[in-house]
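Dear Dr. H.,

I hope your travels went smoothly. While you were away I took the liberty of generating a structure for the chain from your last submission, since the lab meeting agenda had it listed for discussion. I wanted you to have the full record in hand beforehand rather than looking at slides cold. The sequence, exactly as received, is reproduced here:
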Amino acid sequence: TQPLDVFLECVVRHLYTCLFDYDVAVIQAASDALYSLFNSFHHQLTNMLMEDQSELFYPFVSSAKKQKKLVSVNERELEDLMSMFCPDEVFSHRQWVTRIMSAILHSTQLGYLTPVCNFKEDFCNELFPMTIDLVLSTLKKRSCTDLIIDQINKFFARHANTDSSVEVYGSRDSVCTMLKVVHVVRKYTEQQRKINYLSISRAAIFCSAYFTAVMYGELWASEYNSDRGDLDVEGLTQLEYIEEKDCENGQILQNLLREAYTKIGEPDAVYGCGNSHLRDWQTQILHYQYEGRWRSVVEACDMQLALDPTLQLQGLQNALHHCGLYHLAGRVS
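The corresponding predicted structure, in token form, is as follows:
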């Protein structure tokens, strides 16, 4: 399926729904957009719609014979809007995605869809990655793909370094939307190493997209090891080799995979996620929790409290409950 066909199908489906909205302004915006859409893509839409569907949109179809039209993209405008992906200002998700979509639609001569995007956030969210796909498939230029990859890397780097749920980088909706953009952009680059899949994997964990986190974590590991010949030449597994060469990122990767496999419900896979948890007491306790070794959790917590009585240990109360020590657990705050 061509990106344009997917894009048009999504637009028509949403605009048709908007025709029955309770808000007259939404109905007006959808009607105007449908008139312009059928005027611009009459050939593609008439071929796409089935006979019974064509009757539904008959009022919006011009009787004049139209030639097949292709999407055109203003590259200069597209380059100028790239900074909108990673704003310095504080935006809500709705403001952020609407702002970018309006600019992209304008650069592709599809600005008549902007009013509907302003009214309907769900339309904007679904259309965003499809519009990126449409732009990249139209331009077919590596420079454009690289520009978007740069913004993707910046976005997820800033997401990893923010604790604010107000900013767009801490918004689950915004991060999920950018994950969908990554799925699209991957098709258009031969150099996968340009994309920082490790930070994207962390973002997927944030969105509870655990299968996605595993996929991107494995992709990052594969790219990291692409220069290594025989994985067994040093007697190290892929994860151990990465940790040996890059301790910080190696441990991050192991922790991500361990959490993702645990949430997915693959306990056997957890054992293949390396041994970095043995070097840090916090991750060691988490690992015991993953395995259901509650007495080991209690013992590890006891050891840490002996070293620092002021520590606030998460998971101790839950571990005591699992060990049947209910009265003691009730005294642990």
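Two observations you may find useful: The radius of gyration is 25 Å. DSSP finds 19 helices and no strands in the chain.

With kind regards,
E. W.
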